# Entry
Amino acid sequence: MRISDLRLHPVAVADAPLRSSYGRHAPYALRTIVELVTDEGLIGISETYGGDGPLAALEAVRSRVVGMDPFQLTRLWLDFSGDAAAEERDVAGGRSQTYLVPGENPLDRHTRTYAAIEVACLDVIGKALGKPVCDVVGGRARDAVGFSAYLFYKHAGGGGSGADAREDEYGECLDPKSMVRQAKQMIRQYGFREIKLKGGVLDPDIEIATIRALREEFGPSFPLRIDPNCAWSIETSVRVGESLREELSNGGYLEDPTATLESMAEVRQRLLAADNTTPLASNVAVTCFAQVPEAQRLDAVQIVLSDPHYWGGIRKLQQLAHLCEVLGMCLSMHSNNHLAVSLMTMVHAAAAAPHLTYACDTHYPWQTERDEVVIGGRVKFTEGKVKIPDKPGLGVDLDYDRLARLREIYDRLPYRKRDDEAEMRAHVDPNWKRVLPRW
Ligand code: GKR
Ligand code: MG
# Structure
C-alpha cells in the first residue's frame, strides 16, 4: 500500500474567552485536519495544531509522505529526526520552550509534524486490518479512558463572533463561586471524576480560595490539580503548595507552578523539607525526551504530561510512558483546544499506555456541536470516560460539510497564529504583557 495524496484542511473552531497566564483565548482556535489517501482507497485522518506554521511544516514534508508505505513509520521517523538535528543547533540553550505555548516549541517541530502523519498512518493501518488503533500498536490497557474537568477562569462569551457567536454555556467566571458553578455544570454533563483548574490568572490567594471551594463542594474523592503555567515565583509556588497541601494530595498535583527545571526543583526541595509530598507535573519544563532524564535527576518533575500531538504520536507516547516508568516518574496527559479527531487520538494513546494512570486533560467541553468535524457530531463521555469504539482505526470519520464550514471561517479570519497576549490587549488591558513570574 502507498500514500497517494496528502490533504490538509485548516479550520477555525469557536472558542470561549478563556484565561491563562498566556492571556485570553481568541474567538476561534486554529486546528489542521490531515488526510492521507492511499492507492487502495483507504483514507487515514489526524488532527494537529493550526495556522501558518504547522501548515507550512506539513507542506514541507509532502514529497516525503506521498509515495510512502504507511506501515513504514520507523523509516519516516528516521527521516524526520534528521530535520531535528539541524533545528536543535539553531535554538540557543535549548530551553526557550519555557516561554512558549506547547505546540509552538521550535525544538519539537519535527515531532509535531511526524505525529500528524503517524496518527493518520495508524488510522489507515487500523482500517486496513479492521482493528482499532490502540490494538494496532500492541493492545490496550483499558477499554475506556478517563478525563478531568478542565476549568478555566473566563470572561463572558461562548466563542465565535458576530452572527457566528456561540451561546455562553458557562457564563463569566472570575471568582471561586462561579468556578464551583462551572465545575458542577461540567461534571453534571460529562461525569468527570478529577478536576484541573487553569490558574495563573488571578491573585494566588483567590486561586487558593478557588481550590478550597472546589474541595468543599466535591470532597476528597475528586483529585484536584492547579496549573498556573509558570506564573509564580519560587516563593509563591512554595506558599501555594503549602496552603493547598491537603487539597492537592490524594491523586492531585501542582502543575508548572514556576518556569524552568531548576526553579521547579527548588520548589520541590522546599516542599519536601516541609514534609509536603505534593507532586509537581509539567508540560512546559519538559516537552521532549532529551529533557526527561534531567527533570528526573533534579527531581523537578514527578509527573510528565504526555500529549501525542507534540511528543511524536501514539507510539512515542508509549515509549515515553515506559521511560517514565523506568525512571520512577508518573504520567498524565496535556491538551490544547481540539476536536474529535484529536480526542480519539488521545483516547487510543492513553489506552495503549498502561503507565498513564491520571485522568487526561481535555479542552473538549469548551467546543460545541456546531464546531465538530466528524460524522455523528460530538463524542460521548460516560462517567468522565470515552470508550474505545469498536470501529477500525481511530473510530471517527470526517463529515465533509462540517469540515467545509470550519474552513470557510478559517479563510475569513485575520489571524494565522494563536496570540493570547494580543487578545488581552484588545479586550482587557491595552498594556498587558505576559510577565513571568507575575506573582
Ligand atoms: O488553553 O490556555 C490554554 C492552556 O493554558 C493551554 O495553552 C496549555 O497548553 O492546557 C495547557 C497546559 O496544561 O499548560
Ligand atoms: Mg499545563
About this structure: Residues 18, 20, 22, 101-102, 198, 227, 229, 283, 334-336, 361 surround D-glucarate (ligand 1) (CB under 6 Å). The longest helix spans residues 109-129. The first strand starts at residue 3 and ends at 14.
